[in-house]
Design the sequence.
């Protein structure tokens, strides 16, 4: 990324052109990782399914067909063509519920990562930038949060806030936030003594501008990678909370909640258990594959190895 | 080394105090009257309420309440469960061995499989083994283990009928608890078939619990090996004609193990979180299931103390990992 600028000092590039070149450089490295590209394709399909759920889902996800309880998938004996992946115990179409479930998972991922990312950046930036006792106090508090297993802390927070999707998302975001704070702090401490920061300071930039306009853009690479990993963990943890009855509440078609409802049928109707879990696995895997590719493309240290 | 140890211990004090504040504050920020929550009684007269508030110390200022909480904690008094009325510490100590047994077997599986797979993937980089095992590792890393557990139950307990669905041992067997570890106790009891029964109950939950740590360890071992294999001392060892197996096993692996040991240690938090899900699915009577049951039964004294003890355990294990790290890698110790 920096090579373009340093090797050709004579060529003057506009900001937009530099950004375009960085993006092209990033894409060049990203697309060499086949897994990452596959992950991205699956992720795009997932987004499409979530956005177009109302159009592509064959049935209403909460409509109960009383004449079609626990109908197996279409390829199995007794399956029906209007219920491709079968129905659940109260006669709801599995496929439609899975498609609508994508909305929950993506929404959970986006909300959790946004809260954790913004909170973590602000906290980590303040700790790294000011240093001293501010840093010590903040990082000790982060250590305390990290001492609790994430799922357990999220469960307890949900016990305080009350079960439900929104509270589950807030709880997970609180639990993830220290990772972002630590990464930001480490990156800021590395950057703040660099010459360009001093130059900006001498030129009269205030602390706010130094923190968020001068330093932050140079710390983004590890944060983006962490954000991707947190996105997949958030989908997993929210599903786990749903499975334990502490996340999205029935009749929501959240995948974890669907699994919880399906538990008692595991030995009678394999499809009500298999498909929601498979949906979670595929989405999480796709996002993790993408995360691996992002890390390779964004982290210059790992790029050449 | 003593100084290294003392500094590390000193660092734990604020973290531990923070953990106690979280556990103490937890009951106070719950919606509702803390007296009712902690006493677990309903329809109290105002007199009874005042008496209970006094008894539980809720009539004192908050800092005094916290101080009392700490004092009781240091005396090993963690309160009584609202449901069973028994001391929380006693319940914890009865259930803890079940979780430890599950966790230890899981981490042994994860290490015994994960490290060799990682090493092999690294020395055969780019081969089909590397690709297949690393894909499998990524799938394992992305696995919703509560679903994975259900699938294994369908296959091994439902279709094949090889393993039981839940519990620690068949109800046919009864013997005294000596160590609390069912595998050892069943052997000590000398009853025929007891050990096999204990093992068949343990195998599925421990495989489920091992899945994510195994994936992490395999990936970490591979990347640590790749890094070390490029070092000068490995090239020197190869150049002087040392057998390749010795180069890998002695020169490379020993150095590559340093980050891997840290990774293994850091899996303890993952294991405890995973234990909540695994124990719930397999009705394994450990602290994970105990916590979940207590949360849903609103048994807040148990939740409070369980939270505290689990965090303290994670903290201590992390300390042990740090110390081992210092032992293996002198550079850390002398910094």
Sequence:
């Amino acid at each position: 990324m920096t090579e373009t600028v340093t090797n050709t000092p004579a060529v003057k590039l506009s900001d937009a052109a530099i950004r375009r070149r960085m993006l092209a450089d990033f894409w060049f490295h990203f697309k060499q990782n086949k897994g990452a590209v596959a992950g991205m394709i699956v992720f795009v399909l997932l987004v499409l399914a979530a956005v177009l759920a109302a159009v592509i889902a064959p049935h209403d996800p909460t409509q109960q067909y009383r004449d079609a309880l626990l109908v197996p998938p279409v390829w199995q004996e007794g399956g029906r063509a209007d219920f491709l992946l079968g129905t659940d115990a109260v006669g709801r179409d599995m496929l439609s519920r899975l498609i609508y479930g994508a909305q929950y998972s993506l929404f959970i991922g986006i909300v959790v990562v946004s809260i954790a990312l913004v909170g973590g950046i602000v906290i980590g930036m303040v700790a790294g930038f000011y240093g001293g006792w501010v840093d010590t106090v903040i990082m000790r508090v982060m250590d305390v949060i990290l001492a609790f297993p994430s799922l357990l802390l999220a469960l307890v927070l949900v016990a305080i806030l009350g079960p439900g999707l929104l509270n589950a998302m807030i709880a997970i975001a609180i639990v993830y936030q220290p990772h972002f704070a630590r990464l930001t702090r480490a990156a800021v401490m590395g950057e703040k003594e660099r010459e360009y920061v001093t130059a900006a300071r001498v030129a009269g930039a205030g602390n706010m501008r130094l923190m968020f306009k001068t330093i932050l853009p140079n710390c983004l690479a590890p944060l983006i990678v962490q954000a991707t990993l947190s996105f997949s963990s958030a989908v997993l943890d929210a599903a786990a909370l749903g499975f334990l009855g502490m996340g999205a509440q029935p009749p929501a078609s959240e995948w974890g909640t669907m699994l919880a409802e399906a538990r008692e049928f595991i030995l009678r109707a394999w499809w009500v258990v298999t498909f929601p879990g498979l949906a979670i696995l595929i989405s999480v895997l796709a996002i993790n594959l993408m995360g691996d590719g992002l890390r390779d493309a964004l982290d210059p240290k790992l790029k050449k190895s | 080394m003593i100084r290294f140890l003392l500094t590390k211990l000193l660092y734990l004090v604020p973290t531990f105090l923070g953990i106690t504040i979280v556990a103490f504050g937890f009951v106070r920020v719950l919606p509702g009257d803390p007296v009712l929550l902690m006493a677990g009684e309903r329809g109290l007269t105002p007199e009874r309420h005042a008496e209970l508030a006094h008894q539980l110390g809720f009539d004192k200022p908050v800092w005094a309440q916290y101080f009392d909480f700490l004092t009781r904690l240091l005396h090993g008094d963690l309160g009584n469960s609202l449901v069973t009325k028994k001391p929380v510490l006693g319940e914890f100590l009865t259930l803890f061995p079940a979780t430890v047994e599950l966790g230890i077997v899981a981490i042994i599986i994860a290490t015994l499989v994960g490290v060799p797979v990682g090493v092999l993937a690294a020395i055969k980089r780019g081969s089909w083994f590397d690709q297949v095992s690393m894909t499998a590792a990524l799938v394992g890393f992305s696995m919703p283990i509560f679903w994975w557990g259900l699938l294994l139950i369908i296959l091994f307990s439902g279709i094949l009928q090889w393993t039981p669905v839940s519990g620690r041992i068949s109800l046919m067997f009864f013997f005294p608890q000596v160590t609390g570890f069912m595998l050892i106790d069943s052997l000590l009891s000398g009853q025929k078939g007891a050990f096999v029964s204990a093992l068949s109950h343990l195998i599925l939950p421990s495989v489920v619990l091992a899945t994510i740590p195994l994936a992490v360890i395999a990936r970490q071992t591979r990347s640590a090996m790749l890094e070390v294999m490029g070092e000068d001392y490995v090239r020197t060892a190869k150049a002087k004609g040392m057998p390749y197996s010795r180069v890998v096993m002695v020169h490379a692996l020993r150095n590559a193990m340093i980050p891997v040991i840290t990774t293994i240690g850091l899996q303890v938090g993952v294991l405890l979180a995973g234990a909540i899900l695994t124990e719930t699915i397999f009705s394994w009577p450990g602290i994970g299931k105990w916590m979940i049951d207590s949360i849903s039964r609103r048994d807040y004294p148990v939740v409070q103390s369980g939270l505290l003890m689990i965090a303290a355990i994670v903290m201590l294990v992390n300390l042990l990992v740090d110390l081992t790290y210092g032992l293996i890698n002198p550079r850390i110790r002398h910094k």
In short: Chain A touches chain B through 43 residues (CB under 8 Å). The radius of gyration of chain A is 23 Å.
